[in-house]
Each structure stands twice: as structure tokens, then as C-alpha cells.
Amino acid sequence: MFNYIIVGSGFAGSVIAERIANVLNKKVLVIEKRSHIGGNCYDYRNKDGIIIHKYGPHLFHTNYKEVFDYLSNFTDWRIYYHKVLAFIDGKKVPIPFNFNSMDILFPEILSKKLQEKLLKKYPYGAKVPILKLKKENDKDLKFLADFVYEKIFKNYTIKQWGKRPEEIDSEVTARVPVCIGRDDRYFDDKYQALPEEGYTKIFERMLSHPNIKLMLNTDFKEIMKVDLKGKKIYFLGQEFKGKVIFTGMIDELFAYKFGMLPYRSLDLHLEVIEKEYFQEVAVVNYPNDYDFTRITEFKHIHPIKTNRTVILKEYPKDYDPERDIPYYPFFDKAAREVYAKYQELAERFDHLILVGRLAEYRYYDMDDVIKRSLEVFEERIR
Amino acid sequence: MFNYIIVGSGFAGSVIAERIANVLNKKVLVIEKRSHIGGNCYDYRNKDGIIIHKYGPHLFHTNYKEVFDYLSNFTDWRIYYHKVLAFIDGKKVPIPFNFNSMDILFPEILSKKLQEKLLKKYPYGAKVPILKLKKENDKDLKFLADFVYEKIFKNYTIKQWGKRPEEIDSEVTARVPVCIGRDDRYFDDKYQALPEEGYTKIFERMLSHPNIKLMLNTDFKEIMKVDLKGKKIYFLGQEFKGKVIFTGMIDELFAYKFGMLPYRSLDLHLEVIEKEYFQEVAVVNYPNDYDFTRITEFKHIHPIKTNRTVILKEYPKDYDPERDIPYYPFFDKAAREVYAKYQELAERFDHLILVGRLAEYRYYDMDDVIKRSLEVFEERIR
Ligand SMILES: Cc1cc2nc3c(=O)[nH]c(=O)nc-3n(C[C@H](O)[C@H](O)[C@H](O)COP(=O)(O)OP(=O)(O)OC[C@H]3O[C@@H](n4cnc5c(N)ncnc54)[C@H](O)[C@@H]3O)c2cc1C
Ligand SMILES: Cc1cc2nc3c(=O)[nH]c(=O)nc-3n(C[C@H](O)[C@H](O)[C@H](O)COP(=O)(O)OP(=O)(O)OC[C@H]3O[C@@H](n4cnc5c(N)ncnc54)[C@H](O)[C@@H]3O)c2cc1C
């Protein structure tokens, strides 16, 4: 009937399904608990034609040529350079924090002095993590580091993760740099572009193959059973002998046997505003004010002429498995240890493959997930 | 696992799935061979935000209060009165053909005379089928009947069905009336309105219930077997003991045992036009010119402010099972006889229920299908 079962239709599940269908010409069943495909990258058009990213803004950027080429099979692109402003001391300044930001926030003499010192110490165009800057033995650079730390990083991080900055894994903190220069772009990847008609169209094209059967609105637990002792997987009451590719939460797959992995979630508030534009760029961060971390205005991401606009406010919160979507893995040391146990258990299942942000419990961007899925297909499925 | 299996996610399948899930609180699997829900009523927004009816224009109109009330659970409405013009002798005139149409097409004296005669014979507001008019013993009315027959009905019918008018079942020809009055509305039903956000949203709301599992991209034949001898239905290799509700083609269900039922199909040509509007109303019929029967402009159905517009031309053709969608059952006497055989066979299956335009091989409008589905649910499922 089916040679493969895939749980989840985000990029991990959809890429692997597409490869199996097209390259191997085998039949695959994709099981998805939501009523739509695309996982967290799902988008749709509202009644004004504005494309809205249902689960928060998704900007595609990558240095992987193979990922860009692969996706180009399923979409045309519109070149787009993402810009983010942060609302600091009543002004909106570019981040990553750079010379333009200094010019807006600091008196001219201070800004000039800082720029001279930075240019002496670092090559033009470098991105210096604020944790590194903080340790410099220079009064002014230390001021700068503290300023950026206090005004841009600290409170944002507290809001985002609900913890003190010290408690946060360095993989996360390393994300916040100061840039030596005037490049206002948020990313520096070689390929930065948006799918012309949004992400959902990509998923539709990947999955609309006669070899792919798609089961929506279905939690895998409703039709599959995992036999932890016998290391077998049952589908509709019968042992499933084909490969199972699982892209959901690894702890849920194993019935939380070793406890729950921690995640951070979001409350997302969408607002329609009766004017042409609400803000200057796609995303404005609010580190110190309000309870939301940022406001996204979708018309900047997918331009369209309308009299109305739509914005999204993100309110981070802890993940409640009863109600919430697990947006961000929260990997401290304890979590990593629990994850390792699950991973070891997974390896003892013969035909089980775990791929993706939830299944691998990693901070994958879209391009990482696609790259990883293509690799897994080549190495373990093909 | 599932208590019910439904084949097809048009109105027939979706209404019954919704009822089973909400009223009976039982689990149901919906199998749909297309990559989307909604059957022929499916619509989507293009990149300008224009709602497009993928399988031809669908206008909701009904006299059944219970159907209108039921659908109101899943959508808000926008009041809309459908108007159709026919391109006749170089002019666009309202149809059903009425006094306004006569005033546009005929010299004033002729038009006045015709109107006086019609008003003497029929009550104001009446709709007189052209076949009836044709038989009147009055030179002028006969002229009118012949005119409408020749210019509006005949060639349209030949295009639409690929046959001579005489060969067409009267159920179809009776559809073309002359209206005694100046009411330009195409329908005269009590409830005429459009779902505010289109039809697909209705289906999404009907089907997004945890009891409903939705399997897209899946032909029932891929996972079900019909045992014609034993009168049993198998699902994934095992006998399925629950009820099966089938809304696809009855002849396909029974492997064309008694031959194929005839259908008429359409080639649909969508065009994007770089101006604000293309035509005056939602639908313009072309009985005598070109090869298409009509042009639909979707912006008139779901109004939106954009600089571009989208039109759809419909080219009728015979149904080829390899390539086409069976849009219209073509029921002549022979077809009805074949259908009767299938129906009799269906009745010999204990748990099989056939509902909908294809399964019952009937010219159901949306409201008919919904009414029928609600009845079938009450009488045979509840
Ligand atoms: C707020 C936010 C913003 C982001 N912004 C960016 C960005 O700008 N750029 C970027 O590159 N990346 C971004 N990402 C990351 C991106 O979303 C992920 O890389 C990508 O979605 C991972 O794909 P996936 O298939 O691994 O997981 P997902 O997209 O989460 O897909 C997993 C799928 O599995 C399904 N599933 C889970 N459990 C079950 C179950 N029990 N039964 C059946 N189905 C199940 C889920 O419903 C889901 O559809 C962002 C992430 C978030 C949360
Ligand atoms: C061009 C056109 C215009 C119309 N305009 C109007 C209008 O203006 N107003 C109005 O009220 N009505 C209109 N109708 C009628 C309306 O479309 C139908 O009443 C309605 O779609 C019937 O619903 P249904 O569920 O019976 O069938 P469908 O909508 O045809 O749904 C049947 C579903 O079953 C699926 N299916 C079929 N075979 C299989 C299989 N082997 N395996 C799995 N799935 C299968 C199909 O893919 C489809 O999704 C129009 C119809 C057409 C063709």
C-alpha cells in the first residue's frame, strides 16, 4: 500500500516525501495533525490579498547553493533583503546594531569616537558578538557593549526566553552581534529571497504527486502505535514494515518515557489596520517596551497595493502541551541529556528516521532543515 | 479506528462528515482524490486577492431555509443578486430574456407590442418556458419564441451539450424561460448570497474537527476494494464494517460493470487582464459567437479593488475519463437505465450510502446537495 510513512508536513516531511515520490517512485503516506500542510512555514492570503505567515514571519536566507537550487524547482523568487529595526530610547535603529544605529542614538562626537575605535580593532564589515565586545579593555567600547547588552539584548532575551541572559545557552546569545559598518541588512547570506507566491505554494507543489497520499487533521497517535518493548511500529493495527520518517516531537513519539523536553511558545496577535502602512520595515523589535518582542508587517515581506495592512505581535510564553505549539526548543544542559536518551532509544528502532526541528530538537532554520532532509534522503532512504 | 469512511469532500461528503463528527461524535475518514477539499465548489485567492472559482462560477441561491441556516454556521454572507447578460446581435441583453432585453434588441414598436401581448396572456412576473411560448397561436409571440429559441437557446445548448436541442432531456431545456417583466436577476430564490470569504473556508470549517481525518490526493481505489460478489468493502486489506458514504461516480465505484455513464466536461481557460474591469456583470453568455459558452469575471462575484481582473472562458466538450472532470451528468434514457442498474447493485450492499451529484447521477445544485446530505444523515446515518 505505502512503502513509507512520514509524520509531519513541514519542510522536513515534505522534502523527503517529494524525493521518495519523484526519485524512488515509491508510495508514501504523509500524516499531519494540523488541517494544512507546511508546518510552521504555512502562509495564506487574507481577503485583501496580503500574504500572512500564520506562525510568525519566515524569511528565507541561505548559503547553501544546493538548497536554493532545490527549492527553485518549486517556486520563482523575489529578491528581498530583510531589515529589522529596534525601538530604543524612543527611536528606531537598524539591527544588527551598526554605525547607522550609533549615529541615530548617540551624540555625534561619541558616535564618531566609537566608530574610529571599532575600525581600529576590527576589519570593516566584521560582526562582533556583544559578549566579546563586553570583555574589551576600553572604556568607550565597554560602554558600547553595555549599551547594546542592556538596551538591545538583555530585555529582549528575558522576554523571549523567560529567563535571565546568563541562563541562556550560548548558541542563542551568540546570535546578537555589533556590525562594523553601515550594512543594514539583517542577514548576510548569499541567497536572500522570498518565494514569489508564498511558502504554502511550495508545499502544494512538493506534495501534489500521485505517489504521495496526504492525511490531514490526523495525529499519528490516532493511527499508529509505537511498541517500545518490541521496537516495532504499528499502522492501523498491523506492523508497518516500511520506513517511518518522523518529524514531530521526539518525546511525544516515545510517550514522554524520559520526561518532557522543554520548549518556548508564542501567543500571536494579528491585527488589521486601516492604513496603507504601519511601520517602516518588515520587523520592528521592542526589547524594552511592551510585552511583545516584535511587530511584523507582512506587506513589507510580500508587497501589495492595498488600503489596509496587517501586523503581527509576538508574545513569548512557556509551552503548555495542552494548548500551545512548541515553537522553540529550549536546550539547556538538562534538556540535552533527556534528548540524548530519546535519541538512543530511537536508534534501536530498525526503520525509524528522525528529521527536523522537533525530532532532532535543534534550532534549524528552513535552509538547515531542507539541507538535512536532502542528506537524510541520500544517506538513509535512497 | 474510524466508524465511517466517506469518499469525496465536496458538499455531499463534507456535510455528512461534519454531521457525523459533531452530532454523533464519531470518527470519520474522508478520502479525496484531489489535492484540496471542496469538490467543484473549491475556490482560492490569486495574488491580487481575487477569489477564483477553480471549477467554474458557483452562485449560491436557495429556497430552503434549513440549508441557508445550516450553512450560516460556517460562513457570513454578502448579499448578491446574480445577473447574466447574453451577447446577441452585437448587444448584451439580460437573461432570462425579459422586457429589458426586448427593448435593447427590438425596434420600439415591436417591443411594445410584444410586451402588451405577453402581459395579456401571462401574469406579471411569470416565467414562461420558451418551449411553451413556441406553441402559442400568435404570430408575434411565435416570432419572440423563435427568436429566443434561435438566438439564445439553440446554439448555446448545442455548444453546451454537443447535441441538437431536440435530443436534450426536458429537465435541461425547461431551464430557459422568458420573463414577463423587468426583473434582471438570474435567480428568483428567496436566499441569494455569497459566502463572505469564499466557499473553501466553509469546507475548512466543516472539516476541521478532531473526529474528521482527511486523506487528500488519494483515489479510493488505492486503499479500498469493492467485492462485487461478496458485497463487501475492504479498507487497507481488511473488511470495513462501518458505513461507507460514497460521493464519487457510481459507475467507477462498481468498476464500470454495466458500462460507463455519459458526462459532459469543460475546458476552463483562465486569463488575467490588465484593467480594472473586463465586462459589466459576473457572467456574459455567448450563444452564437466563439467556441466558449460564457465568460465569467470573478471580481463581480467577490468585489475587490485591484488594477487587474481575471476572467474564465468555458469550452464544453465530451468527457474523457483519462483526462477530464465529469462536470455534468448527461442523462438521456439509455444513461438512466444504466444508472438504475448501478443503483440496484448499490442497494445490495448493506453499509453503502450514495449521495451527491455524481453518485446519484443528478443535476443537483449546491443547495440540493446540502439538503439531500442533511436528509440522508437524519434518515440513514443518525
Ligand atoms: C516564529 C518562528 C519564526 C521562524 N522564522 C524563520 C526564518 O525567518 N527563517 C528560517 O529559515 N527559519 C525560521 N524559522 C524556523 C522554521 O520554522 C523551521 O526551520 C521549519 O519550520 C522546520 O521544519 P520542520 O519540518 O522540521 O518542522 P515544522 O515546520 O514544525 O513541521 C513539523 C510538522 O509536524 C507536524 N506534527 C507534529 N507532531 C505531530 C503529530 N503528533 N502527528 C502528526 N503530525 C505532527 C506539525 O503539525 C508540523 O506540521 C522560524 C521558526 C519559528 C517558530
Ligand atoms: C461548472 C459548474 C458550475 C456550477 N455552478 C453552480 C452554481 O452556480 N450554483 C449551484 O448551486 N451549483 C452549481 N454547480 C453544482 C455544484 O458544483 C454541485 O452541486 C456540487 O459541487 C455537488 O457536490 P458533490 O459533493 O455532490 O460533488 P463534487 O463537488 O463533485 O464532489 C465530489 C468529490 O468527490 C471526489 N471524488 C470523486 N471520485 C473520487 C475517487 N475515485 N476517489 C476519491 N475522491 C473522489 C472529487 O474529487 C470531488 O472532490 C455547478 C457545477 C458545475 C460543474
TrEMBL record, chains A, B:
Residues 151-363 form the UDP-galactopyranose mutase C-terminal domain. GO terms for cellular component: cytosol. Its EC number is 5.4.99.9. Its cofactor is FAD. One of its GO terms (molecular function) is flavin adenine dinucleotide binding. Keywords: FAD, Flavoprotein, Isomerase. PANTHER family: UDP-GALACTOPYRANOSE MUTASE. Belongs to the UDP-galactopyranose/dTDP-fucopyranose mutase family. This is UDP-galactopyranose mutase. It comes from Thermosulfurimonas dismutans.
